[in-house]
């Protein structure tokens, strides 16, 4: 069960999202209510017109206004001429998340230990959903959340992937390891090179953009590894590294031709 932020339907308990894909995926997922939508006046592209048709079919109020007003509400971000007022994003309860994933033979959970840039978070969520990661655990403190900026960067992927916020990352890892998860922390200084993933339940831990994985978190992980690199670059952006890791993990059950 997704756990919504508490509150009534007042404007203080609403959020905005913008861009065609984030709004479309929110509509498809149906996890939160779309209260109303603002669309720029003037010529509309094909994708925007199609989205408007879908919104109208759900009887969602649509108003046309100046692109300047939309840009102001979106803080100048890539709004594509459309912005929506929606109910707050919801997150899975930790126990419910683990209960759901216990039904899978080899679940994969991504643990984000202090990712602070919402664009990085969004890009990571987009790749995680694309490669079939089953759930994402985010630290409550000093971490980006699934805001409008993250939603735009993820192209709405946060609407389709299980997300959970916890107060203590290290304790959550300890609990999951006790349930049979193999935990791998990724660091550029690690000696082991990550070229294949083990079978069974798996935890993938990524640290913050500047500080990496915290010491207590690292101690909870059984293995540290780095992605294979041949060039002179010593590290990659965390979202780029995440995509490579997810691809390697996705290959572990791939059937090979005889």
Brief sketch in words of this structure:
This protein is an alpha/beta fold. It has 9 helices and 12 strands. The chain has 2 domains: 10-86, Ribosomal protein L30/S12 (60s Ribosomal Protein L30, Chain: A, 2-Layer Sandwich); 91-250, 3-Layer(aba) Sandwich (Alpha/beta knot).
Rg from C-alpha positions?
20 Å
For the largest beta sheet, what order do the strands appear in spatially?
9-8-7-11-10-12
How does the helix and strand content classify structurally? alpha/beta
> CATH superfamily of the largest domain, please?
SPOUT methyltransferase, trefoil knot domain
Structure annotation, total helices: 9
Report what the structure shows:
There is one protein chain. The protein is of the alpha/beta class. It has 2 domains: 10-86, Ribosomal protein L30/S12 (60s Ribosomal Protein L30, Chain: A, 2-Layer Sandwich); 91-250, SPOUT methyltransferase, trefoil knot domain (Alpha/beta knot). Helix content is 33%, strand content 21%. It has 9 helices and 12 strands. Strands 9-8-7-11-10-12 form a 6-stranded parallel sheet. Strands 2-5-3-4 form a 4-stranded mixed sheet. Strand 3, helix 2 (46-57) and strand 4 form a beta-alpha-beta unit. Helix 1 packs parallel to helix 2 and helix 5 (118-130) runs parallel beside helix 9 (238-250). The longest helix is centred in the middle third of the chain and has 13 residues, at 118-130.
